[in-house]
Amino acid sequence: MIRVEQLSKHYEVHEREPGFLASLRSLIHRKHRLVKAVDDISFHIPAGEIVGFLGPNGAGKTTTMKVLTGLLHPTSGRVEVAGFRPQDHKNAFKRRISLVMGQKSQLIWDVPAADSFLVNKAIYEIEDGAYRKTLSELVELLELEHVLHKPVRQLSLGERMKCELAASLLHRPDILFLDEPTIGLDVQMQEVVRRFILAYNQSVGATVLLTSHYMGDVTALCDRVMVIGGGRLLYDGELSELTERYSPRKRIRLLLDESGSLDRTREILLSTPGVTGIQLEEYPAIGLEVPREQVSAISASLLTSLPVLDLTIEDPSMESVIGQAFTEKSAPSKDCEPKLKQAEAVRD
Question: Superkingdom of this entry's organism (predicted)?
Answer without folding.
Answer: Bacteria
